[in-house]
């Protein structure tokens, strides 16, 4: 189905006149649409009932699910000296940054319309989480892209007066601070030309030549870090961004992606320890734009004459407030399937979730294959001190690849199984012959 386009309606009649398309072909296309409408009951009830939306959408269960999805997506990248979780009874906290209290920047492009009062920003989430006696000082500091508006000096004063700082930076798929939504859910700019530079730096039609934070965001990071206050940084983002400065300056670093309408509560729950972070990177974070391409299955490279070929943060990486130990790897075969098992133990002082990742290397193949591939993963919940056996079953399909005839084949040979907490954190390794 077309999404509001006019290409077909504008050109259909002329195409038929020019004998480019027959009436039977048009009838066939129309019949498919009518059949779908019939199956959906639209002939009997052709109009929606807007009043039903309040009965069906955004129930308490929906809100809980939105919060849970956001919580489990947050990736803790750095936590020096176990700064996190913070105490909810902290005396004062400065909440700073262009994405700290920005409704639409927590959402993605083509987001369904929703009332602003139902979106919880990170500032609001922190207010919901801390004790009534905690003093919260909020300053925006700067915009995502606009360099004509900033109050960095005020942000520095707020940081100096507080016990800790939560600095929320990153990007946006929203097209304006005051975004409006058309019926398709696409965001549209509501301001007059040149009145305001939109935050949007990601999404449809927004390619970039650099992955560096835009606007005055890096200046804001430098200025806040110079105060010496404990600095927790949160990225709101829809694409990989250069995190080198944050990695150097922040004591704790998280990425929340676009956390959605419950994102503020989710981020606060991680910062203050109601949720133990368990998200893992689905990307590799490069050290610079010039390092691209960089991904976990790239293999060894000696092409760079400066720096390193390893990413800043690797695919599958993510920290927890507890620690996990891996052991007792076994591999067995039954028919065409390979069963891989290991024991994971929570050796830390708090309950937590671990994402156990299985990577596979095919040592010899008739065509060039990636040196390592993620084949499976399992998320497990363990109480402190608890152990669990994790089992994976590798099927012939997972051992197969496309040969020169573009057919999926499994070739006999040696394979190495690697089990770990990330692509660069392999804890167990063993080979088998298939």
TrEMBL record:
Q: Which SMART domains match?
A: Fn3_like
Q: Does the keyword Methyltransferase apply?
A: no
For this protein, the Enzyme Commission number is 3.2.1.21
Q: Which GO terms describe its biological process?
A: carbohydrate metabolic process
- Give the top-level enzyme category: hydrolase
Q: Name one GO molecular function term.
A: beta-glucosidase activity
Q: Give all residue intervals belonging to the Fibronectin type III-like domain.
A: 354-423
Signal sequence residues = none
Family that this chain belongs to: Belongs to the glycosyl hydrolase 3 family.
Protein name per its UniProtKB record: Periplasmic beta-glucosidase
The species this protein belongs to is: Tannerella forsythia (Bacteroides forsythus)
Q: What is the lineage of its organism?
A: Bacteria, Pseudomonadati, Bacteroidota, Bacteroidia, Bacteroidales
